[in-house]
Amino acid sequence: MRGILNLTLCALALILLASTGAEAAKSSSTACKRSIITKFVSYIKSLKSSSKGVINTSSAGPIYGITTSSGKEYLGIPYAQPPVDDLRFADPVAFPKFTAVFNASAYGASCPQYSGRETSEDCLTLNVFTPSSTSSNSKLPVMVWIHGGSFLVGGSSDAAFDGSNLASEGVIVVTLNYRLGLLGYFDGLGTNGNMGTLDAQMALKWVQNNIAAFGGNADKVTVFGQSSGGHMIRALMSSPASEGLFDRAIIQSDPQNYGLQSRNVSADIIGAIASSYIDCSDIACMRNASIDDILNAQAAIQQQAPYLVAASTGVALAEPISPAIDGSVIIGDFSALAAAGNLPVNVDMIMGTVHDEANPTIEAQLPYPGVSSDYFAQVAVAVMGQDRAIQVLYSGLYTPDDSSDGVREALAKLGTEFIWTCPTQANAVTLSSGRNVYLYEFEKGITYTPDNGGLSLCTSSEVCHEDDLYLTFGTYTSVTSSQKKLSAEVMDRWVAFAKTGSPNAVGYKTWSPVKSANKLNAYLLGDAKVNQTLRPTDCSFLQSVGFDYSIFG
Fold first, then answer.
1. What is the pLDDT of residues 434-493, one digit of tens each?
2. Which of 39, 75, 167, 169 has the highest count of CB atoms within 10 angstroms of its CB?
3. The Carboxylesterase type B domain covers which part of the protein (predicted)?
């Protein structure tokens, strides 16, 4: 009933905002509509449920969910106590064992954010999707999804992340929420600054303790995540406490240029801005602050922190609220630990990007063609700092052409390669010593709506950031035959990797692991080709210029 009421209020709010012409309607409508669609789909599924079976877990207690035509779903299961009052900004505390059967038939709320979603601080929940017929003896591989959203927005209840289709291929799928923004990454006044990362670890511990009852194998867990979800996986692999929680990882479209932050950035700059903005000098005050004050402080950080960091390092910080190196939860930067052979978690991996990662960001900042060529230099300096920008400007590799959209296209190419493609490739080569790493690039996708729908730089000829999500979960609604075929291949390969450690599912071209910078074996998803190199001239140049993780790590 609470969910239906929230949807009604959401719909009424949209009508009222639209009738007044309020600017807030524009920013809230997309997320609100998505919330309505997601909850409506969940409601319809519950109506279609033909039976309910209780799962008796060892440490969580009895749970029942819903049965659908494609399998079984157990939604909104709390894995940690609500992080409120004295638990706000604290390490997560495991949720006590249920004394009565828990009704897992509806998603939990997303964690607090400015997005129009149904949110609550009581958000530390996870969802389990299983095939139709499983038992505690099934021992199926487990795939745990970590959503993206720049550590500021997102949630496990997105319709795109429905794990039913993947689960029908013979795996158990788990999706989870974790604390976002300052509630997850406030570093100061005695906090460790990595609450969101600890949330993910606790969810993975819940999987270890309980997934067998759902038919899963706790010894065969693959974590996979996109964008900041991939960034979270890097943080988890840089944490000794993650050892034994998963044995494989898939990192999708992670902006690997951004390293794990140093403590002087996360605490001295970000934590200081937050406590000053909210006017708090101790943690008790911060725990009594309103959610609106905390979210407003986040907005202030997004505006101020890049300039403050640039003043001391010469480089702006694009994602100021994110996991930080604290010496205990996270012991060092992922890339540096990998280069030294000291990553606490050593697992086989798939990692890669889509062809046009930066296009949505460039269009958001520069919505129209006809941008002055002078602007290219300004953006390059702002993003890379003066020294590296000068090298880029004189390289001749990113010179805008004379077309009306030349500047936007050149910036999109630079952003894609500098932030995503080339650092991912560099890390893959480093990691290939001591483990199997499979590298890919999506050459085709499905436009992720509403985020990329209607963008002039995200047409059918581009593959933009997030355009791999529907392909990964098979949650598309309207696709071409080639897109449907590609989605089937992605799911088959991801599931094969979870089952065997190799993405070579039956019926597809052989995909070998990375061997060296000149033997990447990079698989081009959508073209079914394997390239030994991937943008070699550009990536070699950018690696010589230096990625941000070598500055902030």
1. 899 999 999 999 999 888 999 999 999 999 999 999 999 999 999 999 999 999 999 999
2. 167
3. 54-541
- Helix, coil or strand: residue 356: strand
| Inter-residue contact 156 to 147 (CB < 8 Å) | yes
pLDDT tens profile 90-138 = 999 999 999 999 999 999 999 999 988 899 999 999 999 999 989 889 9
Residue 263 is assigned to a structural domain of this protein: no
151 backbone φψ class: left, alpha, beta (φ>0; ψ -120 to 50): left
Please name the helix (run of DSSP H) or strand (run of DSSP E) that holds residue 220, with its range, or none. strand 216-226
Number of domains the chain is built from:
2
The secondary structure element, H or E, covering residue 43 is: helix 23-48
Q: What is the pLDDT of residues 41-60, one digit of tens each?
A: 444 444 443 335 799 999 99
| 45 shares a domain with 185 | yes
Q: Provide the whole-model pTM.
A: 0.90
Let me know whether 232 and 369 are in one domain. Answer: no
Q: Is 338 domain-assigned?
A: no
Helix, strand, coil distribution of the chain in percent, nearest 5 = 45, 15, 40
What is the pLDDT, as a whole number, of residue 311? 67
Query: What is the domain-level CATH number for residue 405?
Result: 3.40.50.1820
**227 given a catalytic annotation:** yes
**How many CA within 13 A on the CB side of residue 290?**
3
Quick one: 176 and 28 in the same domain?
yes
Asked if residue 463 lies in contact with residue 445, where contact means CB atoms within 8 angstroms, the answer is yes
How far is Cα 500 from Cα 503, in angstroms, rounded to an integer?
Answer: 8
Q: Smallest Cα–Cα separation from 464: which of 316, 321, 349, 364?
A: 364
Residues 76 and 196 in one domain: yes
Nearest-10 crossing angle of helices 195-210, 228-237: 80
Give the list of residues 6+ apart from residue 320 with CB closer than 8 angstroms, or none: 261, 265, 269, 270, 301, 302, 305, 306, 309
**What is the pLDDT at residue 152?**
96
In-domain check, residue 319: no
pLDDT tens-digit profile of 510-526? 999 999 999 999 999 99
Catalytic residue among 157, 227, 228, 322: 227
Domain that holds residue 16: 2-252
Contact 222, 141 (CB under 8 A): yes
| pLDDT surpasses 80 at 151 | yes
Among the candidates 252, 275, 310, a domain finishes at 252
239 and 360 within one domain: no
Closest CA to 352 of 158, 535, 551: 535
Q: 252, 276, 300 — which closes off a domain?
A: 252
Q: What is the DSSP string of 256-321?
A: TTSPPBPHHHIIIIIIHHHHHHHT-SSHHHHHHS-HHHHHHHHHHHHHHHHHHHHHHHSS--S--S
Strand 348-354 with 437-442, pairing: parallel
* pLDDT of amino acid 308: 75
Instruction: Determine, yes or no, domain membership for 295.
Output: no
Looking at residue 23, its pLDDT comes to 35
